[in-house]
């Protein structure tokens, strides 16, 4: 089974989602002062782009990325536009200064509202895959959601100061073979990192 089939978002006709994140292996840090804790890791960025874009030939199918407002604010135009990717931003305040972009579908007041929007699009046959892109609170909420399928988690084997962290997850997430790439271990500028995948063995087939 390849990556497109894994995050095909449909389990018996019901939409599911996966998470994409990178964290410091030791302290689980994902962010520092609004940015990533580490200098840019080229292979990780390429893996993120390849894994979370649409792989279907049908260009009307969307890969939908769900972000918190601050994570969305630092997405570059390129990250916002590549490979059939569209976005839903979570913001309780629905801050009017929220970054606009042609591929921004909507601003949702909560994660359930974002997932309901996605379910509507899915019923219209428009969704290829769904990715939770952080930050910390969004990851935390989605980890305990029954429709959370997989965590695509890059482990960075070097310590960096961090102020945002990936939440711990329990044994219901089991490490599985990474079918998104066979090239899972990298080193750049003295920083080694590894692409791991964890499958939720309790993912259930209830509706969003
Ligand atoms: N390493 C990684 O994989 C990774 C991934 C993503 C982000 N990051 C890093 O993490 C940091 C940003 O993450 P963050 O946790 O600080 O912020 P964030 O989740 O991106 O944004 C926080 C804002 O999102 C909105 N929000 C969050 N949870 C919500 C919910 N459940 N319902 C409705 N709105 C919600 C709120 O917006 P309002 O204030 O408008 O209500 C909140 O203030 C940056 O440093 C970034 O570089 C790292």
UniProtKB/TrEMBL annotation:
Gene3D superfamilies: Dihydrofolate Reductase, subunit A. GO terms for biological process: dihydrofolate metabolic process; folic acid metabolic process; one-carbon metabolic process; tetrahydrofolate biosynthetic process. Residues 16-200 form the DHFR domain. Pathway: Cofactor biosynthesis; tetrahydrofolate biosynthesis; 5,6,7,8-tetrahydrofolate from 7,8-dihydrofolate: step 1/1. One of its GO terms (molecular function) is NADP binding. Its EC number is 1.5.1.3. This is dihydrofolate reductase. It comes from Dreissena polymorpha (Zebra mussel).
